[in-house]
TrEMBL record:
NCBIfam families: thioredoxin. Keywords: Disulfide bond, Electron transport, Redox-active center, Transport. InterPro entries: Thioredoxin, Thioredoxin-like_sf, Thioredoxin_CS, Thioredoxin_domain. It comes from the Bacteria. Belongs to the thioredoxin family. This is Thioredoxin. The keyword Disulfide bond applies. It comes from Fundicoccus culcitae. Coiled coil: none annotated. Residues 1-103 form the Thioredoxin domain.
Amino acid sequence: MVKDITDAQFEETTAEGVTLVDFWAPWCGPCRMQSPVVEELATELDGQVNFYKMNVDDEPKTAQSFGIMSIPTLLIKKDGQVVDKLVGFHDKNRLNQVLSQYI
């Protein structure tokens, strides 16, 4: 399951384990394409990777702090450290390949 998080929750929520955060907005077409891919992977990798999404319109602070200028952007953290950043739409195979490096 992919959970929504806020700027206030970001650091604590992504501090442990492997985490993918999907930065998105409702008006973004590629974001709407990315969302089902992330949801599907969240089901398949449950217990191995934590999945979150953050609406950049409602929660701009975190996106700004990471220099996110385009969405969708997928930020991957391991034990609180950013280990990868993917900009634009990525298919399931590509995301699975990237995440498997950190699991």
